[in-house]
Amino acid sequence: MLQVLGGAARPLSEAALWAWSRVTSHGRDRGDVPGWVLVTIMTAGLVTALWLVADDKLKELFNNALDGVVGNAP
């Protein structure tokens, strides 16, 4: 893209091109959809794996914490 100042055309800087593209996009910026999908799937997989491995220990930890707060601890 060329910028015309005083009759002479010269190329715009990268910052000016970036700003121009942001102004003219009119909210059509979709972002990195495949990246977010990958992050979401990997997070769900990690939570599921941890839950399968540590289910009994997490239940015990939770019950002990509740017993300590309520006052039913042995």
What is the string of SSEs from the N terminus onward? EEHH
Q: How many helix segments?
A: 2
* Number of separate structural domains: 2
Q: How would you classify the helix and strand content by structural class?
A: mainly alpha
| Low-pLDDT runs | none
- The total beta strand count reads 2
Q: What is the straight-line distance between the termini?
A: 76 Å
Rounded to an integer, what's the Rg over CA atoms? Answer: 28 Å
Reported for the largest beta sheet, the result is: 2 strands, antiparallel
Strand content: 5-15%
Helical content (DSSP H or I, runs of 4+): 55-70%
Largest sheet: spatial strand order: 1-2
Rough shape?
A: elongated
What is the average per-residue confidence, as pLDDT, rounded to a whole number?
77
Quick structural gist:
The protein is mostly helical and 74 residues long.
Provide keyphrases for this structure.
74 residues; mainly alpha; 2 domains; two-stranded antiparallel ribbon; 2 helices; elongated
Plain-language structure description:
The chain is mainly alpha-helical and 74 residues long. Strand 1 and strand 2 (8-11) form a beta hairpin. The longest helix has 38 residues, at 33-70. The chain has two domains: 1-27, no CATH class; 31-74. It starts with a strand and ends with a helix. Helices cover 66% and strands 11% of the residues. The protein contains two helices and two strands. The protein has a two-stranded antiparallel sheet with strand order 1-2.
